[in-house]
Specification:
heterodimer; A: alpha/beta; Pyruvate Kinase, Chain: A, domain 1; 5-stranded mixed β-sheet; 6 helices; 6 strands; B: Single alpha-helices involved in coiled-coils or other helix-helix interfaces; 2 helices; 8 strands; 30% helix
Chain lengths: 286, 135
């Protein structure tokens, strides 16, 4: 049996780890609340944007536009949103697995526009080409970050370097459920579009013209999708960390209680042993 | 009572404005337009400029930079990437930005640079005009 001092030392170390995980859980709970609020605030803009784009496409589905054409033989660009910090359970590895487990997205078919240091490290190790890195945006995503990212990928799209644009991020369903998602941004597929009845009956005019309006709106639509992805990813990251730290704290508590039991047993054993020794000594003298 | 319609100004970070208005002025890529209730349905691209909101008893102004507007008969939605009330504008910074943009335009460069500098110039002018109105 381990000595009393060894057990005590272990117990103290587990206790301090438990305190750290508990503090981290509290911190990520607060961050999660903030991030959730932001997700809520960005929803109306995104929804309206989606409605505007879909109603234009539904009406002018046959329009030949550079953002609507598909080039499947070219490389795909994927904007991968992970986090800058670890200790968030499977959060980062799940995002990377979206690419690595999908033969359509093997490393020779994909260029990565990366957000988040942890994802970048793994992707580099797996041999993916990281074209650009925007990891600073992940701590506190601003809309200008999303605009910058979308401008970069759209430029590559227009110059013909890449044929399709995807975003890989973790969708935030609720505090405990986060779903890694791969979403296609470009080309926008008119066939995917559902349209509400009320929109069909309105005869909309476009100024200066449908094509010019699409030229302006689609980049904005892409930015809003990326921004939505960023805010949801931040909420998911903190949610994942909260869950991971919660179970770590529970585990630490369990370990402490079993170590306390061991410690008490060892203490009792040593007392008994001491008593036996004293009695034996007294008997020998007497 | 004048005919009112619903106006929503939505930016990525928040719902900037929501209310009943009787008249709305704004600058589009084709020029300045004014909207009353029962306007023909129209989608327009906004140029950087001032949006003037005429409520029933009050007039409000906001600076909008890049966005578009969806006009329906009884409602108008402005989707703006950046939108500010006059008291949110930093006039000194806007003036600085204007000078920077003018310098870049004077220097020349390739077409994209010039486009961007022109946009920056328009934005800073809209901001400065709006913060001068306030005084």
């Amino acid at each position: 049996m381990a000595s009393m001092r060894d057990i005590q030392r272990r117990k103290v170390s587990v206790q301090s780890t438990g305190q750290i995980t508990k503090a981290m859980k509290l911190v990520s709970t607060v961050k999660l609340q903030k991030a959730r609020q932001r997700v809520e605030n960005t929803k109306p803009y995104f929804n309206e944007m989606y409605a505007a784009v879909t109603s234009i496409l539904a009406r002018s589905g046959n329009v030949q536009h550079k953002y609507l054409k598909s080039y499947e033989d070219k490389k795909k660009a994927v904007i991968v949103i992970s986090s800058n910090r670890g200790l968030a359970g499977g959060y980062n590895s799940n995002i990377v697995k979206l690419l690595t487990n999908n033969p359509e997205f093997s490393k020779d078919k994909v260029v990565v526009y990366n957000v988040g240091r942890k994802g970048r490290d793994t992707l580099v190790r797996k041999g993916y080409e990281i074209r650009e890195d925007f990891s600073d945006a992940v701590e506190n995503p601003l809309f200008t970050d999303a605009m910058q990212i979308s401008a970069t990928v759209l430029k590559a799209f227009e110059s013909g370097e890449i044929g399709e644009i995807y975003v890989a991020y973790t969708e935030f369903k609720n505090t405990v459920s986060h779903v890694p998602t791969l979403k296609k941004l470009l080309p926008v597929e008119a066939s995917d579009v559902e349209i509400k009845d009320e929109q069909k009956n309105i005869l909309m005019n476009y100024e200066p013209g449908e094509e010019e309006v699409l030229d302006v709106i689609i980049p904005k639509y892409i930015s809003s999708l990326i921004f939505g992805g960023l805010t949801e990813a931040v909420a998911s990251e903190n949610g994942a960390r909260m869950v991971a730290m919660d179970s770590a704290t529970t585990n630490a508590d369990e370990m402490i209680s079993s170590l306390s039991l061991l410690y008490n047993r060892a203490r009792q054993a040593s007392i008994t042993q001491e008593l036996t020794e004293i009695i034996a000594g007294a008997e020998a003298i007497g | 009572m004048a005919d009112l319609f619903t106006l929503e100004i939505i930016s990525p970070e928040r719902i900037f404005y929501k209310g009943e208005v009787k008249f709305l002025e704004m600058t589009t890529s084709e020029g300045e337009i004014g909207v009353y209730k029962n306007h023909i349905p129209m989608t327009n691209i906004l140029a950087p400029g001032i949006v003037t909101i005429h409520e029933e008893n009050e007039v409000k102004e906001a600076a909008v930079h890049s966005g578009f507007v969806v006009i329906l008969q009884d409602s108008v939605k402005i989707m703006a990437e950046v939108v500010e009330w006059p008291d949110e504008i930093d006039e000194a910074r806007a003036r600085e930005a204007k000078i920077r943009a003018e310098r870049r335009l004077a220097e020349g460069g390739d077409a994209i640079d010039i486009d961007r500098a022109e946009l920056a110039l328009k934005r800073s002018i809209a901001r400065i005009r709006l913060s001068e109105h306030r005084k």
